[in-house]
Design a protein that fits this description.
The chain has about 350 residues and is of the alpha+beta class. Helix content is about 40%, strand content about 25%. Helix 10 (about 215-220) packs across helix 11 (about 225-230) and helix 12 packs antiparallel against helix 13 (about 315-330). The structure holds thymidine-5'-triphosphate (TTP) and magnesium ion. Magnesium ion binds next to strand 1.
Length: about 350
Amino acid sequence: MDKKRAVLLVDMDYFYAACEELRRSDLKGKAVIVGADPKGGKGRGVVMTCNYLARKQGIKSAMPISIAYRINPDAAYLPADFPYYEEMSAKVMHVLRGFSEKVEQVSIDEAYVELTGAVGSLDEAAEYAERIKGKVRAEPGLSCSVGVSFNKLMAKMASDAAKPDGIKLVRESEVSSFMGNMPLDKLYSVGDKTKARLESMNIKSIGGLAKANKMALLSEFGSIGIELRNYANGIDESALVENYEAKSIGRESTFEHDTSDQKEIEQELMKLSKEVAAEALKAGFAFKNITVKIRYSDFSEHLHSRGIKPSSGAEAIYSTARLLYLDSFERGRKLRKIGVRASGLMKYSGQSRLG
Ligand code: TTP
Ligand code: MG
């Protein structure tokens, strides 16, 4: 593992609240809080997240909604719309996958991007980060923060320091100046309990842990103690875990006018199939499943899927998509929208240098 690595951690800024701002221009300039219903101050439940205006007022994630209401009863209080956030998340992940074939999504709004091999230096990785930020800002239209470093642990630490809307690069030589003075619970895997145990050993900061006596750590925590000390020194050799099962590639289009014209619909299916195939090919994937989504003019939506022999050709997609459409389409009903999705993706063997 002495090859120099370059890893990004991309974390969306105030994600749920940012998604709400994106679709509702009336929220501009307001404190926005996504979470439980405040019910005039009597509500139970918590704040899931809030925008930076609300944060300036002292509101934060996991705070009881009743307290947030006491701080700012005039804020916009919104319920969570998970399907919508998932959709935005998928768009962000799609952008990231355009930059590297190794992406590990770790939560709805966060992913590692491995750039080892693709860049010659961390400075170059930071340029990638800039381009990623630009793309995500353009479409879907959100802001994110990016940590740039030589492993996952440090990329994650760096991303916290990049918030909001920034990029933070941390080199190997900068580990102790970057995090030596930080409190222990800023370190990955150190929670309240571990922090208290470390403090009882007179270890008070990440820098303190980095230099702590190994035997003492071993006897207090076992081998985990050594692992913690390694983290405090910025050491982490873990590889990205790719989320193949989560992968699918889809395209949809809305017709100019609702239509039941078979020719027009088949043409659109062909176009979408070609786009999906081109993208699968670019990413080096074959797929085993095709889904067609039909939305009628009354907005009712139908999904139909079928397994196929692993393939990545447009013809294979189109012929299956067309059958699915012919099987399921109710003649005479007008279509508003149609979509084609390939899933059950498989990486071509021998494609990945890092795998
Ligand atoms: P985070 O990335 O932790 O927070 P964030 O994106 O809202 O803000 P930041 O700019 O600091 O990254 O979490 C991502 C989403 O997860 C967040 O938008 C809402 C949800 N979430 C909860 O539901 N409860 C919580 O306690 C936290 C922390 C997040
Ligand atoms: Mg976030």
